[in-house]
Design goal:
By secondary structure, the chain is mainly α. It has eleven helices and no strands. It has one domain. InterPro entries: TM_pro_TauE-like (IPR002781), TSUP/Inactive_protease-like (IPR051598).
C-alpha cells in the first residue's frame, strides 16, 4: 500500500510538471519505475497506459482554458502515433540487458537537453494562438517524437514542445496545451504496440492505477499553472532530476568503481544546484528590471 501511495505521489508530481512545462511525465515516471526494478519495456508500457487517462484529463483542462489548437493536435499527433507504435515494437524486441542502458541514455539525454535549454536559451515567447507550421515541419517532428517517447519511456514533450517553442511562432500556452492533448494519440499507439508484442500478463495494474490517480488529481492544477509558474526555473530543476535518476543505470553499464560513481554523482549534483540557483537569480533580476522599467514608463507618462 505504501508503495502504491508513493507511486500516486510520483504520478501527481510528474503530471504537474508535464502540464505546466508541456513535458516531463514520461521521463520522470519511467526513470523512477526503472529504479524500482521494472524492465524498460514494462516501465514504458505502464507509463503509457496511465497516460491514457491523464492525457484526457489534461487535454480537457487545456481545452476549457482555450489552450488547444486542434489543427496542430492532429497534424502532430497522428504521425506521433505512428512513430510511437514503431518505437514500442522495437523496444519490445530488445533484450533487457541492452534496453536498460539504452533507455537511461535516452532519458538522460532528454534531461540534459531540458536543463541546458531552460538554463541558457529559454523558449521564445510568441502570441499566436494558432500554429502557422505546415505538415512539412510537423509530420517529421511527430514521427521522431513518438518513436523517442516509446523507446525512452517518455520524450514526446521534450522533442515536440521544445521544437515548437524554439521556433517562437506560437504562444507557449497553445503549444503546451496542444502537445499535451495530442499525446493521447501517442500514448494509445504506444500502449497498443506494447500490448500486441508483450501481452497484458506482465503489467502490474496497481502501478498503472496509482500513476493514473496521481496524474488525474494534478491535471487541472497544472493547466491552471501553465501561465503562472516560472517555467525557466522548473525546466532546470526537472532536467537535473531526470539526469540524476538515470545516472545510476549509466554508471552500472560502465566499469567505474564505487568511489568514482560517488564522485560523479557529487559533481553533477553540485553543477545542477548551482545552475538552478543561477537561473532563479537571473529570473528574479529580470523580473525586477522589467518592473522598474514599467514603473519608469508610467511615471514619465503621468508627467
Amino acid at each position: 500500500m505504501q508503495k502504491l501511495l508513493l507511486l500516486a505521489v510520483v504520478g501527481f508530481g510528474a503530471q504537474l510538471v508535464d502540464g505546466a512545462l508541456g513535458m516531463g511525465y514520461g521521463v520522470t515516471s519511467t526513470s523512477l519505475l526503472l529504479i524500482a526494478g521494472l524492465s524498460p519495456a514494462l516501465a514504458s508500457a505502464s507509463v503509457h497506459l496511465a497516460e491514457l487517462g491523464t492525457n484526457v484529463a489534461s487535454g480537457v483542462s487545456h481545452w476549457r482554458l482555450g489552450n488547444v489548437d486542434w489543427r496542430l493536435v492532429l497534424r502532430l499527433g497522428v504521425p506521433g502515433a505512428l512513430g510511437a507504435f514503431a518505437g514500442a515494437t522495437f523496444l519490445s524486441h530488445v533484450s533487457t540487458a541492452l534496453a536498460k542502458p539504452l533507455m537511461a541514455a535516452i532519458l538522460g539525454g532528454l534531461g540534459m537537453y531540458i536543463l541546458l535549454r531552460y538554463a541558457f536559451r529559454p523558449p521564445e515567447v510568441a502570441q499566436a494562438r494558432r500554429s502557422p507550421h505546415t505538415a512539412r515541419f510537423l509530420v517529421p517532428l511527430g514521427l521522431a517524437g513518438g518513436f523517442v517517447d516509446a523507446t525512452g519511456g517518455g520524450g514526446w514533450g521534450p522533442v515536440s514542445t521544445t521544437s515548437l517553442l524554439s521556433a517562437g511562432r506560437t504562444a507557449p500556452r497553445t503549444v503546451i496545451g496542444s502537445v499535451d492533448t495530442s499525446e493521447f494519440l501517442v500514448s494509445f499507439a504506444a500502449s497498443l504496440g506494447f500490448v500486441l508484442n508483450l501481452g497484458l500478463l506482465g503489467i502490474d495494474w496497481g502501478i498503472v492505477v496509482a500513476l493514473l490517480a496521481g496524474g488525474l488529481l494534478a491535471a487541472p492544477l497544472a493547466a491552471w499553472l501553465v501561465s503562472r509558474i516560472p517555467a525557466r526555473i522548473m525546466g532546470v530543476a526537472v532536467g537535473g532530476l531526470i539526469i540524476m535518476t538515470n545516472l545510476k543505470a549509466l554508471f552500472d553499464a560502465t566499469q567505474l568503481t564505487g568511489e568514482q560513481v560517488t564522485v560523479g554523482f557529487t559533481l553533477f549534483a553540485a553543477v545542477w544546484l548551482g545552475l538552478t540557483a543561477w537561473t532563479a537569480w537571473r529570473h528574479e533580476r529580470n523580473r525586477r528590471l522589467t518592473l522598474a522599467l514599467r514603473e519608469a514608463a508610467e511615471a514619465e507618462w503621468s508627467i
